[in-house]
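Re: the 302-residue chain
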Amino acid sequence: MKTIITGCNGFVGRNLIPYLVGYDMEIVKMSRVDLKQFQPSLFHDSDVIIHLAGKAHDLKNTSNSDEYYHVNFDLTKKLYDAFLESDAKKFIFVSSVKAAADSVNGVLTEDSMPNPQTHYGKSKLMAEKYIETQELPEGKSYFILRPCMIHGPGNKGNLNLLYNFVQKGIPYPLAAFQNKRSFLSIANLNYIIQTLISDPNIPGGVYNVADDCALSTNEVIQIISESNGNNARLWKVNASIIQSIARLGDKLKLPLNSERLKKLTESYVVSNDKIKSALNVDRLPVSAKDGLLVTAKSFGST
């Protein structure tokens, strides 16, 4: 089975490609340079197209907003149009939960009304809507995956920053805040994508992708500490005192302000019930805790 993968040099691509090769799939890699010279004829003898390439969310807000729409929407539109004219049967677009919501009250499901607030989320949603509104030829299907925070060995995101914080032995002072966040092990994402490719009976559509259970930040710190053989140092400073310090930070431009406190303590829980039902499984291969342990141990070995 010939599978074309865009964004092959990104974190997901570097992990997904060897995983699929292990299932005897023929992989054709397409980097961003290849995409600039893209010719629709490249898709004609392919079976599956996995679109990973995209403009990632810039947490520092230094990116030009037009770049999000050019990369995340225009490029996806171009590739999907080529897919519709090609021999390929399946198009897998890796979008983001941020196409649905930047903050979540309760649990995010596929039925939640999308309301992205950033250019990143809006551009991803535009690409999703384009895919959903095109007439689909018989025998073809699309899968729009909305992963939450993806992690695994080699990932250098926010979990790495938290690991470095814990590694220094600094007590975590926000333990009084009770929150839950969903994560996604790269191992589970690999499994899901491979199953979508190989199983002809899975219906196309939009699917949230997350590990089976959400974890609190306190639990994540405990897992990171466990990966080092240490005990977690959690300080339950009164939440109202922390909030007062954050408000003071707003005025004095301190590292801890109200916005940063919100990001550190808010909940973002994502349901994966729909994808598990489609795959006909009760649980994904890797638990949320085991996946984070693998990631945390990889930080210690680098």
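The first strand starts at residue 2 and ends at 6.
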